[in-house]
Structures are given as structure tokens and as C-alpha cells.
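Hey forum,

I'm writing up a methods section and want to include a predicted complex as supplementary material. The small molecule is flavin-adenine dinucleotide. I've pasted the protein sequence and the SMILES. Can someone with a working setup run it? I'll credit the forum in the acknowledgements.
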Amino acid sequence: MKIVCIGGGPAGLYLSVLARLRSGGRDEVVVAERNERGTASGFAVTLGEDVLDEFFRTDPVGAERVRAAAHMWDSQVVEVAGERVHLGGRYGYAIGRARLLELLAERAEELGVTLRHGTAAAAGGDVAADPLTADADVVVAADGVNSAVRTARAPAFGTRVAHGANRYAWFGTGKRFRPFTFAFEPTEAGWVWFHAYPAADCPSTCIVECAPETWTGLGLDRMDPGEGRRLLERIFARALDGHQLIAPPGVDASPWLRFREIRTMSWRDGNVVLAGDAAHTTHFAIGSGTVLAVSDAIVLAEHLYPRGSTGTDDVEAALAGYDACRRAAMAPVHQLARASMEWFETVPARLATADALEFSWSLLDRRHDQGRLNQRLHRATQVESIRRVRRGLTTARRVRRALRRKEINPRLTLR
Ligand SMILES: Cc1cc2nc3c(=O)[nH]c(=O)nc-3n(C[C@H](O)[C@H](O)[C@H](O)COP(=O)(O)OP(=O)(O)OC[C@H]3O[C@@H](n4cnc5c(N)ncnc54)[C@H](O)[C@@H]3O)c2cc1C
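Reply by user p_vandermeer:
Happy to help. C-alpha cells for the complex are below, copy them as they are.
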């Protein structure tokens, strides 16, 4: 079988790794990435336990490298105009996007994948016209949120696009956050806030967000990017301890975006299949885009290479199975992401009536998945000694999980 992945992001690269592993090195696998190697947008992405479990289950060798490069944040706080509230029992991992892509690319190469960086495949989304994709048995369109393949085959994929109301921009900052921090600051035009977390191999990520009327009220829609950053640095002087914001690499124009929610009614058309952001996007407040891209790759590989075989005899059935399985799995994720996005669109109204503790509870419960007991626990977590106990319990849980997935170095979990 010949598989060509259009796009060398997490979805395309991880599918290529698994295809070589599961075919026992038999199948030809090519990844075409239009960017040169080593160029990646953005700063760090967050990873949770579930995706680490999946990495270890599907490729323990590569997983150990990703885990060793990932930085663990072991607490989460909400700061409302400088008043700090602790969210107990929360932790996660972050890794620079560039580092993650390089680790996946190295692993793919080591397994015999042909990597073609600097190669824009299937111009205009036409896979039949490009010799690279024309003779492939499977073309994986892992070409990201603006997927040309999805656009070219819009009727087959049934794409729907919706926009979030808020404006946001991805920045980096030199401030080394220890906890994952949500900071909310008042301005004369309304509240502005950021979601920030540390990484080991790049500046901390700092995503700034606000309501559209605050964005225009502050003049951020009209300012040049440098002026806009300086204004935000003044607004967040307390939360950033005077550190500067860093523009996303390669973005000279306005960094401001509105979240674009992509949903597709089908993920396959003939031998062309969508994966990752090309198939779906979820709001960044649930920090799942990379995780979902990797999950797509895993499920696609499991359908193309059923257990006990080195490849399917029936590509069409395999793609149909992947499509049905992943679309069903995405439905609840879409709901959670939508609830999370809508919560952030109501921040100004909530801050007008709630104190910092109440507000932080509603942030924690924004997907309506916390019970009454957790609400009482949230209050108790503001007491230092209770926080210490919770942290101890969380560490024990974390170590148990690391041991269960057979991390070679579970000491990483204690740092
Ligand atoms: C700044 C930033 C921060 C993020 N933070 C998080 C986070 O904390 N946690 C999280 O889980 N997710 C996060 N995400 C989302 C996450 O990065 C994406 O969901 C994830 O990268 C999707 O992976 P993908 O492989 O589907 O697409 P992408 O990573 O977008 O990769 C698609 C690739 O296809 C290439 N391409 C496009 N067209 C062609 C073509 N014609 N030929 C060849 N190559 C092509 C592009 O150059 C790109 O490299 C973040 C995204 C950004 C931008």
C-alpha cells in the first residue's frame, strides 16, 4: 500500500509513524509538508494524560522522547485583578510545537517514512493532478484548518463553519509561569484576559482574549502589532511581572483571530480521508487540537492495519470504519468545546456579578461536569494545608499512571 500524507503536522506525521510500524516497514509512506523543516508556528501545546497513554500504547519508543521533552505544570490558578484563586488537583504537560514536530519527524525518518519538506502537495486541493498523490492508495489530507483538499471537495465532505465572537491572539512571554494561569484584568473598555502555561523548550504560551467591543474599545483593531503588544503589556504588567509579550513566529501582520469551528459531515471521499484540523477544530480553551489530531492518526492506522495483519485488503471499508468511529467520538468533544467557548464569551457579565472565588468555580465548571462536592472542595482548596494534601494525592495518581503506561523514567513525573 502507498500512503501519502498532505501536511507534516501532528496528524500527518503520527499517521506516517504508525503506518510504518504496523505494516512492519512494508508500506511506502510519504509525508509532504509545504514548510521547510524546523519552521513551526506558535509556541507550546498542552498534552494531557490520555494522549500520553495513547502515545505509549502505540509507539513506546517515540512516546518516551515526547514525554522527556514535555514540561509538567502541576497547578492551576485564576487571577482576577490580582486576586489569586487556586484550582486544586489540576496538572498537565506542555511541549513546544516545533520540538514536538521535530521529534515526530525524526521518528518517522528512523522508521523509513519519506519526508518531503518544502513540498506543497495537490495544488488547489486536486490530488488527482499531482503525481505525488495520484498513484497513492490512500491520501491523508492532514493539511490543517485551511485544508485545500477539504475546500476543493466541499460537497463530499459537507463542511460547516461557525465563528466564535471573542477576539484572541497567541503570544509567547519570557515569564516562566509555574502554574497554568488564567489572568483577568479590567480596562476602561472591559475585561481582557490570558490563558498562560510554561514549556521547557520555548517561551511560555500566553493566549490573550477579549470581547469584540473591548477589542475595538481599546483600539486593538487599529493598532500596529507592536503597539498592540505594548498596550497589552501595560494592561498585564501585574500578571506578567513586567515581562514582555513575544509575537508568534512568522506573523508580522495583526495576530488577532476569531475562533473558526470546522465540522464536516463526512471525513472521506474515495481514497481521500481527512485527519486533524482539516476534519474538525475545537476551541483552544479545551487545549485539544493536537491531542485530537494524534487520536485521528491512531484510529485511522488501526483501521488501515487491523490487529494481527500488516494491512487491510479493503481500503474503502477501513476508511468508512475510521470515519464512523472518529465522528462519533468527536460529538461529545464538540459539545464540551462549544460550552467552553461560550463560557469565555460570557466572562464580562460573570465578572460584573461574581467574586473571584465564585467566578473561578464557574470557570472550573464551565463544561458542567463538576459536582457539588467539588464545589465545596474548591473552597477548601484555598487553604494552604489542604492544597498541599491535594497536591500529594495528585502526585501519587500521576506516578501510578506513569508506571501503568510503563514510562521508563517515572521520576520525570515528580519534578
Ligand atoms: C499557536 C497555537 C497553539 C495551540 N495550542 C494548542 C494546545 O495547547 N493544545 C492542543 O492540543 N492544540 C493546540 N493548538 C492546536 C493544534 O496546534 C492543532 O489542532 C494541531 O496542530 C492540528 O494538527 P494537524 O496535524 O491537523 O494540523 P497542523 O498542525 O495545522 O498541520 C497541518 C500542516 O499541513 C501543512 N500543509 C497545508 N497545506 C499543505 C499542502 N498543500 N502541502 C503540504 N503541506 C501542507 C501546513 O504547513 C501544516 O504544517 C494550537 C494551535 C496553534 C496555532
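Some notes you might quote in the supplement: Residues 6-12, 32-35, 41-42, 45-46, 120-122, 142-144, 148, 170, 276-278, 284, 287-291, 293 surround flavin-adenine dinucleotide (CB under 6 Å). DSSP finds 15 helices and 18 strands in the chain.
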